[in-house]
Design brief:
Aminopeptidase; single chain; 18 strands; six-stranded mixed β-sheet; eight-stranded mixed β-sheet; alpha/beta; 9 helices; Alpha-Beta Plaits
């Protein structure tokens, strides 16, 4: 016997030393064969599920384009999505799902109970539009107007929530057709007022949570996506840990002393104080926060003061936003804004009041959940089309769901192939545009994650 033959037979000879009794060795080998056969069967079943998801998602793509364009042409503002709610609910009810309407005013929660045991996994899509006038010349262009805070405003899906709705309707359609194989329960959450409810109204994710959307049945994990106008269609970007910024809105009220514009020394000019505060706020970012840890943004978007050009007014009001990607830095920035504004006011002899309202938390992707589901995204979009991206200073109230269960939120491309991302119109602008020819990638991603997460549980 050659050395090679001896080595190749050595594992078998070892079995004889472990199991000198031929009967025991036979039982062991039979168990090994059964285990291997089970693995082969499981792998084949998984491949069958993946192929069916891909087939069904591709088949429903034209229907999703139809849904998306109808919704785009009929947008509704936050807490006012009555017709949108009915449109979605009709589709879900037709699929045989357990549907509850009117959650958090105009939201929907629908349950699909799978045919196999498994976890409760929530999938979320937001449904509201924005007070923006569309400039994009497409056949399904929005011409809608509505009342917003007492004003008549144009309305547009200028952030892609129409695509989120269509994708989630598609996911519900595909999974309903595979119900007997679905592990556990899928809870579909169609959320209103993600952009923030109008005025002092309650709404959005906080109100949905308050009304028990993460309970009965209790959600074990939650997933969501956002379309991106600057990421090429078919591509997916994600980030483990902090992904999107918290959003805080601040108001700084400055009270000075009114006087004639010809003699400013006889008063206290709140406009000058305001400009000094704005300049000093930027030093918090550039000189006081560790930007190697996480980025910080402080922006003043409103400056109200004065009535006549020859009167130095008594009062000025600044309003703006704060974006942070670390909870500790968020608190620190709040304190520093108050300190800087009040110290500048004191130096000028003006009274300064600062109020800060938290709109969203940091959108945090649970690292363990991300690691588990990256292969699902790669299966859905192709490994070359999935990559870890950078954090973003945009904000999402999806972050509130992440306080209640492990969460994973990712971006899906909506930019036409070959376009320069730097020339893509940003979200929330009149020229915002989404190419909707590959919405099926989003459906494949969600469906694959449902099966893969259920399998690992």
């Amino acid at each position: 016997m050659t050395k090679i033959e001896c080595c190749s037979l050595s594992p078998i000879w070892r079995l004889f030393t472990i199991f000198p009794n031929k009967k025991n060795m036979r039982k062991f080998l039979m168990l090994m064969i059964a285990a291997l056969s089970s693995l082969i069967h499981l792998h084949a079943q998984q491949n069958k599920i993946t192929a069916l998801i891909s087939q069904q998602a591709s088949a429903i793509q034209p229907k999703m384009v139809e849904w998306r364009r109808y919704i785009h042409q009929h947008p509704e503002l936050g807490n006012r999505e009555v017709n949108t709610m009915e449109y979605i609910a009709k589709h879900l009810e037709g699929l045989g799902l357990e549907v509850k309407k009117g959650v958090a005013k105009t939201g929907i929660v629908a349950l699909l109970r799978g045919g196999k045991p498994g976890p409760v996994l929530a999938l979320r899509a937001d449904i509201d539009a924005l007070p923006v006038k569309e400039r994009v010349d497409v056949p399904y262009k929005s011409m809608v107007t509505a009342d917003y805070m007492g004003q008549t405003v144009p309305v547009m899906h200028a952030c892609g929530h129409d695509t989120h709705i269509a994708i989630m309707m598609g996911v519900a359609d595909v999974l309903s057709g595979m119900k007997k194989d679905v592990p556990g329960t899928v809870k579909f959450i169609f959320q209103p007022a993600e952009e923030g409810p109008p005025g002092t109204e309650e709404g959005g994710a906080p109100l949905m949570i308050q009304e028990g959307v993460m309970e009965n049945p209790k959600v074990e994990a939650i997933l969501g996506l956002h379309i991106s106008s600057a990421l090429e269609i078919g591509k997916i970007r994600y980030k483990s840990g902090s992904f999107m910024a918290s959003s805080d809105w601040f108001t700084i009220k400055i009270t000075g002393k009114q006087t004639h514009g010809s003699s400013p020394w006889t008063g206290i000019d709140p406009i000058v104080v305001g400009t000094q505060i704005i300049n000093n706020l930027q030093t918090i970012v550039s000189r006081q926060e560790d930007l190697t840890k996480a980025p910080v943004v402080i922006s003043v978007g409103k400056f109200h003061s004065g009535i006549r050009s020859n009167i130095i007014p008594e009062e000025a009001i600044l309003e703006g936003t704060i974006r942070t990607l670390d909870a500790g830095m968020q608190k620190d920035v709040h304190q520093k804004i108050k300190h800087v504004a009040q110290q500048v006011g004191e130096a000028w002899g003006a009274k300064v009041e600062v109020t800060i309202e938290t709109k969203t938390l940091v959108t945090y992707n649970d690292p363990a959940l991300v690691k588990t589901l990256i292969p699902s995204l790669e299966t859905a979009a192709g490994k070359d089309n999935v990559a870890e991206g950078r954090w973003t200073t945009g904000a999402e109230d999806f972050s509130f769901f992440g306080e209640k269960a492990p969460a994973f939120f990712f971006n899906l491309g909506g930019m036409p192939v070959g376009q320069d991302p730097s020339k893509a119109a940003p979200h929330h602008t009149p020229d915002f545009y989404i190419e909707d020819s590959m919405l099926d990638v989003g459906v494949k991603a969600f469906c694959q994650m449902v099966f893969d997460y259920g399998k690992k549980k």
